Task: structure prediction
Amino acid sequence: MTQTESKPPPDPLPPLPLDWAAGSAGPPEAVRYLRYLTDPVERLLDRIYGSKWNPFYQSGNLAVLAFLVSLASGLVLFLWYHIADPHGSVLAIQESVPGGAWLRSLHRYSADLAVVAIAAHLVRKLLQGHTWGPRALAWISGVVLLLVTLFSGWTGLVMVWDVQGQEIAIAGARLLDLLPIFSEPISRSFSGEVPPASSFFFMTLFLHVALPLGLGALLWLHVSRVSRPALLPPRPMIRFLLAALAAAALIAPLDLPPAADLLALPGIVPTDLFFAFWLPLSRALSPAAQAALWAGLIVLLSAAPWWWRPRRAISVSSVDESHCTGCTHCYHDCPYEAIAMVPRTVLSQTSALVARVDPDSCVGCGICAASCPPMGVGPENRDGRDQLAAAREYLEKFRPTGREVVLIACRNGAAARPEPLALPGVALYPTGCSGSLHTAVVEFLIRRGVGGVFVLSCPPRNCYFREGPKWLEARLEHGRDAALHPRVDRRRVAFASLSATESPAIRAALADFQKLIAGLVPTSEAQPDLDLVCEPPEDLAPAETPETLEVAEVRHV
Amino acid sequence: MFDLRLADLLRLVLQLAVALGILLGVEALAHLPLGAPAEGAAIRLAVRTAAGKIEICHNVSAEELAQLPIHMRRPRICAEQPVAYRLTLNVDGVPVHAIRAERRGMRGDRPLVIDDLVAIPAGRRAIFVTLEPEVPPGTPEATADALPRGELRQTIDLPPGRIALVTWGASSGLTVRQ
Result:
């Protein structure tokens, strides 16, 4: 009756024979090679900050935050800047304005951090394969955001009119001179015959102020196809980053290089590698070669929706109108605003409205499948009914003893690297996005005698799709539809949000859960079968007493 | 309990230290000294002139006039023709740079602009700069003579890293400035 811990754990269960997420489109093969570079960094940051606060997972939000800090500090600096004496006014800010040097350092470091965060965000999106299909607009607008950010930064560096600003201005002017639209070369403005006109600095200042303001519109476009976009990191992270930025600006304030001298050759130039990374190249290459490099890079990045994509097509969601009750759960839960509620074309007593999927906006995440109690929506072969059918087929391969643990994990997350998860007595059940897991599958597995179900989602900010972990947790623990039925013994269900790089933590949580399951009465053959329908018959008796079930809750690791 | 708090505190300190380390790394890369001290010097040839053009005129015969519309019948027609220029630079008697430049623009009606940077060794240098028009054959001598041209022969002291600026003015001709 009781399971003692001294007994050896059962052999690993067979792998999942039918992966119901097989239609899900993952990132392209090239990701494997990119991961050799990023995995060590990701793993290190996971160990230091935990997957919940890993800055790599919040790179997009950090970019926005750093940009806002730069914008705010820049508006204050603007009060002391004079176009008639650019370098002199910056020197005055450094030396005469109280806190001026700190503010200028904060301005520059936050701008640099924004570039780092944007680059990390870009790499992360490449790793996730988020470049194509419905996400192409976000990708291309992101590339434009990066370019505008860089250009805005160049104008800021030129505004200082130090040796670096001079070199950027001259190199940039030579690039512009390649365009056959100017009657006289722009670079001649920097020949040294006369100092650059105030109008040049006015234009630079105008661009430096106007471009960041215009970035807001681009940012709106960037997130226009997602629901509930999270633009900023969580508040503790905001406070943490602001404190760290302020401290860094205090500890290592930015110095001011010598003023520009147009009759001096560029010698040792203090270079901001985040914005002016191309400056060393400008000394070695002709303007035409530089322009070719820039054009190639821009074309390469902008064309990623066509060359950085998986080989197989995604299967988008569709609605079975005969099952749709018009409840709007899928409409609300869809992270990509791909579902609309429209009037029925065929009259029905069920509801006046019915869900309809826009295939051009659907990314095939399947989160709608898990939101639907009647299992009437989802991608092909991945709606709730298909998931239950796959679970039934899975269990037909072996007879559960009531002591084993089925680990349901996202194939884009922890299940992508299953080796560290291969524990005795634990069967890996890879899914698509864990947010697409219908809770009926969890119930079905337990009622068919599986000892426990450990649902492992990615960290909330590192969902391959969006909001999967959030919805999964809400459905398992907080009664959000399609909720885990109250009759399910919560002690047999565990939930954790951990990254693939946190395998020690996953193994520890699994071991704890196995110990707990070992102490429970095996459930095999304790319950009748569950039909492959959304709402099982009401006369199905729970395995434990109702009192026990009400007290027990899903274990949250 | 104490151990747990200490562990949390240590973790927080580590997190802050890493964040600061990253930001200080950003700070270091925000003004990384790149390049090398310039050992040589240079001469910038910065010439701009709108004068490089000639007018080619010819008298129109009575037959040609008759073929023209009434409002276009003028006995003498002049066409503006751009003139290319050749700029040469000799340093210490050695030719180091020569460039042929034409007026800019699709129709060659924009000013002629030269903006070249020529590297030379630093020190005391005798420079000789010439700016000569390439007069088209058949141009009347008086017209050719009226085209601006110039010569500059000067000894300059150029410290390492400095640029001597050679410019052109309609009245002052070629001049050098350091």
Summary: The mean pLDDT of chain B is 89. Chain B is about 25% helix and 45% strand.
